[in-house]
Write a structure and sequence with these properties.
The protein has three helices and no strands. It is an all-alpha fold. It has one domain. 94% of the residues lie in helices and 0% in strands. Helix 1 packs antiparallel against helix 2 and helix 2 runs antiparallel to helix 3.
Length: 169
């Protein structure tokens, strides 16, 4: 019986580890995307800065120099805003994915724990039906509380990610 309970516990741990690995992988992938965007933007801005510095050095008319600087500032601002939008999009998608994973983990994890506890209690010789009924009622009440927490956390993640998507439009 101890082996069966240990197997159940090991299975729960394995599922939790897999969920943690998925979250870590998601984090790594999105960090890479953000860094790629930042590097590409920095490289582009540097190259344009060099070109604009060369062009500015060749200009003799102060009015043309001001126009070129204004144009460069506008282009730089547009690129920075595009970079910020891309990063906000990645962040929003990541929040939604993390919320989904956490919601799945809460619902399936609590279900697995309750099933393991029920199997454990079934293996215990209890002759008093009232005691068994009280344990079952307590487990049902706890399950309902977990389900309510799962729904609340899912709604919280959805509410958290919605302002980011509304702000982009």
């Amino acid at each position: 019986m101890a082996t069966k309970q240990q197997d159940q516990y090991n299975e729960l741990q394995k599922k939790n580890l897999e969920a943690a690995m998925r979250l870590a992988q998601l984090s790594i992938e999105n960090s890479q995307r953000v860094m790629e965007i930042q590097v590409a933007t920095a490289k582009s801005l540097f190259e344009e800065g060099v070109q604009n510095a060369k062009a500015l050095a060749a200009i003799k008319d102060p009015k043309q120099a001001v126009e070129l600087r204004t144009q460069y500032a506008q282009t730089t601002t547009e690129k920075m805003l595009a970079c910020a939008r891309d990063m906000a999009e990645i962040t929003s998608r990541t929040q939604a994915e993390v919320g989904k994973l956490v919601g799945e983990q809460l619902s399936t994890g609590s279900q697995d724990v309750f099933e393991a506890m029920q199997k454990m209690f079934q293996g215990i010789p209890i002759s008093d039906q009232n005691a068994m009924s009280a344990m079952q009622t307590a487990m049902d009440t706890t399950r309902a509380a977990f389900e309510q927490m799962t729904r609340a956390s899912t709604q919280a993640f959805q509410a958290f990610s919605q302002p980011a998507s509304k702000g982009r439009k």
